[in-house]
Structure formats: C-alpha cells, structure tokens
User: What shape does this take?
Amino acid sequence: MDPVFLAIQLLNGIQQGLLLFLIASGLTLIFGVMGVINLAHGAFYMLGAYAAFSLTEMTGDLLLAILLGIPLALALGWVFERVFFRWLYEREHLEQVLLTYGLILIIDESRSVIWGNDPHGVPVPDWLDFSIPLTETLSYPVYRLAVSVVCLALAGAMAYVLGRTRLGMRIRAGEADRETVAALGVDIGTLYAVLFAAGIGLAAFGGMLAAPIESVFPGMGEQVLIISFVVVVIGGIGSVKGAFLAALAIGLVDVFGQVFLPQFASVVVYGLMAAVLIWRPAGLFGRG
Amino acid sequence: MNGITRRGVLKGMGAAGAVAAASTLPAPYVRAATPIKAGILLPYSGTYSRLGEAITNGFMLNLGKSGDMLGGRPVELVRLDSEAKPPLGPSNATKLINGEKVDVLVGPVHSGVAMGMAKIAREEEALTIIPNAGADQLTGVLCAPNIFRSSFSNWQASYPMGKVLADRGTKRVALIYWNYAAGKQAAQGFKDGFADGDGEIVTEIGVPFPEVEFQAALTQVAEVNPDAVYVFFSGGGAVKFVKDWAAAGLKDKIALHGPGFLTEGVTDAQGEAAEGIETAMHYADTLDNPENKAFRAAYADRFGKNPDVFAVQGYDAGALLRVGVEAVQGDMDARGDLYAALSAADFASPRGRFRLSAAHNPIQDFYLRQVENGVNVVKGIAVAQLADPAKGCKLA
Assistant: This one.
C-alpha cells in the first residue's frame, strides 16, 4: 500500500476515534460515575442530531443551532434526572435497563411523530464547507478535521474538570463513596443532576456535531449505542482517559480492519474488545 | 406490540345492495356478501414505516378503482405491523393465515421478514404477493406456485447498470456495498451485466452492514482510482455515502452509479452532492406514460402526497390480485385457476409493461435515470424486459 494512502487511513482512524469518544464520553460519565446503565444514550444522541437539523433550518447556521441546542439538551437532561433517574441510583441495574429501554421507545416514537421517518441532510457551515486536496483524486473535508479539533478540546476540558477542579473532586469522591460525601455536606442530589445533565448534553452535542457527517435518520441512535458501550467497556467503566484511548483504538482497528481484513471487518472491533477483556477484565483503566 | 395493530375494514358495498345483487346474479356471485380477506404484513413502525404506508396506499388505490370490490366481492384489509423484524416473520404470517384465515397475504418490505414469511406461506399454500422484499431466493430456490412478487429481485435491480457500463466500454470499475445478503446479490447482478463487456472489476469493498462510516472505503477507492464506481446503499446510508463521496472530492473525478435506491426519495437530503448521478431502476417519477400520469394524479388526490416506487409496487400488487380474482370470479378456492391467471398477468403498470416470469418475478424495463435539479430524470431504457435468472427455481 502506498504510504500516502496509509497515512490518510491513519487520519481516518484517528478522526473516527475522536468522534466516537465524543459520543461515548457522556455514557462513561453516567455509567461509570453514577452507576446508571443508560440505554437511552443513543436516543439522546439522535435527539441532538434532529435538533441540529431543525435548528439549522430555522437559524440557517449550524453553529447557531449548536449554541441554542446545548442549553436545550442540558435542560432536558436535568428534567429527566429529576423526574426519572434520581429514583434509580439505589435500584438494581435491571430496573434501570427497563426504564431506559422504555425511554428509547418513547423518544423514537416522538421522533417519528415530530420529524417523520425520512432521512435528512444537515448543511455544513459555509466557512467550513470545503475540502483540502491530499492526493490527485482524494480530498479531505475540513469539517471532519474541525470536529476532530473540537473533540480533542473537549477531551482536554473533561480531563481538567474531573482532575483539577473542586467539582471534579466532588464527582470523583461521589463515585467512590456516595454516602460519605453526602455526610460531609455536599449536596449529592444536585451534583448528580448536574452530572447527568452533562452526560445527556455530551450525547446530544455529539449528535449535533455528527449530524452533517452522518446525516440524520431514524435508527441512528441504536447504531452508536452498542459501539459506545464497547468504548466504555474497553476503556474501563468510569474512566474518561480509558474511554479516550479505547475510542481511538476502535477507530484505528475499524479502519485498518476494513482495509486489511475486509472479510472480518464487522467483527474486528469485538475481537479487540474480547482481547482487552481477557488481558484486563476490568478494561484498560478500570478498577476491580 | 406484536398483535394486530389496526384492522382496516374497507368501505364495502352497502349490505342491501349486496343482497339485491346476490339474488339476481349467477352462482359465483352468491358469495358476494362474504369479503375477500387480504392480510397486509408491512412495517407500520420504525425505519421502514414510510415504505409500509406507501405500499398500503398504492394497494388501496388500486382496489378503489372498482369500489373496493374484486370479482364481485368486497375486499377487507387486515393489517399487521411486521416491525421489519425477521424473527417475527413466521409467527406473523401464521397469525394471518391460520388465525385470521386471510385469502391472500400481501407483504413484506424487509427481505429477512420475507424469508420467514415465505416458508410459512409455502407450507400453508397461502396465496402471497410480495410488494417489495428483493431477496433473489424468493423467486429462486424458494419459489412456489402460490408466491408472487410485484417488485424486483436484488440481482435484477443491479444487472442493468452493469450492462450499461459494459456497453459504454467502461474499463475499470470498483464495487462498494453493504456486506450482507442484499448487497452481495446486488454486486452479483452488476457483475453479470458488466461481464458482457471487456472491462474489469478492479476492487470490491464490503462495508459492514449497517455501518455508515465510509471514509476508509473512499480512501481505498481513491488509491485504486477506477473509471467508475458502483455502490449499493439505501436510505440513510445512501444519503451519507453520496455526501461523503462529494466531500472527498471524488464526485468530478470518478463516475458514481448505483441501483435506483441510491437516489430514490433522498435527493432532497443529498442536495448538490446527488447532481449528475446515474442509476437504473424499474420506475421513475417522471415516466411519460398514461398509466403513470393517471396513477400519480389519483394518488396525490386521495392521499395528499406524491407516490414513490414503493407505492407503485403496492399498486401493482393490487393489480396482480385483481387479475387473479376476476379470472375466478371471486372464487378464492379455485387455486389452480387463480395461480394460472396470476402467472399469466400482463398489464400496463405505471412502470410500463408488467408481466411475470415462470418463477413469478416481474419481467420489466429498467430505466436509466440521472439526477438533475434533485429529480431522477429518465434518460432512456437501460435494459428492456429484463427477467431474473431465477437460479434454483423448479417452476420454470
């Protein structure tokens, strides 16, 4: 294989991995820190994408749509936490699965009622709507590169907030021992509501950024749900650093699997997961 | 969820009218008061619900041409949501055939559902008309005297573009498709058509179904740099592929082709990226024939929206049923005559001439279409009166 094209495939893998991190990061926060299995994660991703579609139609610009969409998503996450999820922290995973599966059905049916079942395209903002020629035949869309930069920035911001701030300290403490943190006077209820809203916000933000790349269609949520869980499991539950490395590894393995092992392209990612779990049953950065 | 979601009883004739007619007409019409039950197994929820709705509308539109009566009997629709879930195919088919005692089964959209449904229909010898599912086997190794199709086979949908490129003398072609049954059958159809020329397939890229991340495949194609690329993607995958193709700068360098579904009903979402793409299909909105014009006007009038290829397939499922039922004057138990009449059907459809092969798959024209200003404009006939080879079918 020509080294230039090999380098482009490397870029493809990294770019795909960064986007995957963005989509899965909210899941690892909610699952890892709060211990809630949120099967509706993909549904919130889909809502983000559809919101980006509608708001872009209204405002004429994706950037404006995202700026409007993020507070909406955070508010939605907050409401869902207060109404549904806060009852679930002490419950079994099975009950969480039941609730969040129900949410998938409700959100998907609402999507069908509000937006219908046709796929839609979302235009890339004009100032990002061009491609950089890499070879004689192939160009690289700048929007994809821009999304990668945003994902990197977000990963840095998450690492900073969780590792270096008072809020992050409380979140990590709450993860370790919920009761003790509450006993020390931290309002754990509000803390979890913030965290949950952030998780939903990240899922929806992922959907908004991905909308011009993926286009917007029914079922897009289910497609990312499984791979998001794979990211969380490989990375180690609750580890943002682990999720970041896992997402990059999955992106690269998926791309090079398609190039070098086309007959096994659909299973290489799961092969990677199996291998990691045999080596480290709790995932790359998991405890236990 | 799995139950009968809606029972639509069509406006039949008035009861008084039925009694009056029965008393004055010859023997077969005595049955007039008992309706023909048509079990409709289509997706009314989920991704494919738009297709289920279009097919149902088309079917009802055809029945409406004769006041919802066929062969002197009113037709009653029993609708069941297939949910496009293959595991539910056999149980749903059983529910309609044995539970509801339907006289004819119409469905489904999804090939996976169709395989399960066809198995039951064969065992129970129930008249079945498939208005979409394209799996080659349904009119191939799994063909049966009682199973008919009003749509296409996957092979048939991709052969024409292969033939067109072969005739043009295109030398180097790459294939990209979802690596599952329908994608592989499409690839085989294209290859069989393309084999008529002296060109070669330079690379074949299977993308895991239903993944829509195409960047790796696009990079591979750019490296090989063929003269043309033939792809099999539909729905959201088609939208995304066409946009990614343009964004990767390949649009003006390599010709992009596909079966009609690549640009059918999705050109709005694809926008500028779809312009100029050539596809082949058994229908086009813009077909210039009197049946199509009448069909499109009547559909828009009754349902308040424009019909698509799926509506045509539903409409022709109705037309096919009509031919059979009228030939036996409503006597659905006259199986031999009923199947013989269906097999011999030959009528003018909105898509052009419609008749069936010995394996019960349509023999039809495939049109070469090109996207101009978001519309699939007919450029001519790609392959006329194409029949599926019906590999493994013993009816032939």
In short: Residues 3-279 of chain A form a domain with the ABC transporter involved in vitamin B12 uptake, BtuC fold (CATH 1.10.3470).
